[in-house]
Design goal:
Layout: H1 2-11, H2 15-28, H3 33-45, H4 49-62, H5 67-79, H6 83-96, H7 101-125
Helix pairs in contact: 1-2, 2-3, 3-4, 4-5, 5-6, 5-7, 6-7
Length: 126
């Protein structure tokens, strides 16, 4: 019941209410990694990157071969401007699945952002 309500809140963009329900579900059933992933996703959308990273890392500890969770973690790390770690995660995912669409896009984004940063740094030095 709570899960369906949280999903409904998420679907209607009532994110704070969905976050509160996902937290309650995890309090009652801490082993629910699908709920943990949903919570991490919403927290990352709300800018709570550090907590989202912690949740994704927790999931990955238990499911180290989950490429989607590793990709989600890399995405949030890139939003936190931790480009080196994000790039390494994307690279590792792509070594296992060279066609992983989200990892390909994320890897390209990280490379592009890194390229922009390098150009901006050089421009400031001139």
């Amino acid at each position: 019941m709570l899960r369906e309500q949280a999903q409904q809140f998420e679907a209607t963009q009532r994110y704070q209410e969905a976050i509160a329900l996902y937290r309650e579900i995890l309090r009652r059933e801490p082993e629910q990694d699908d709920v943990r992933a949903a919570l991490a996703r919403l927290l990352s959308w709300q800018g709570s990157y550090a907590e989202a990273v912690d949740l994704y890392r927790d999931i990955i500890q238990r499911h180290p071969v989950d490429l989607d969770m590793r990709t989600a973690l890399a995405r949030v790390l890139s939003w936190k401007k931790q480009m080196t770690e994000a790039r390494l995660l994307y690279d590792a995912v792509l070594r296992e699945d060279p066609r992983h669409a989200e990892a390909l896009q994320g890897f390209a984004d990280v490379l592009l952002m890194g390229s922009s940063s390098s150009r901006n740094h050089l421009a400031r030095k001139r």
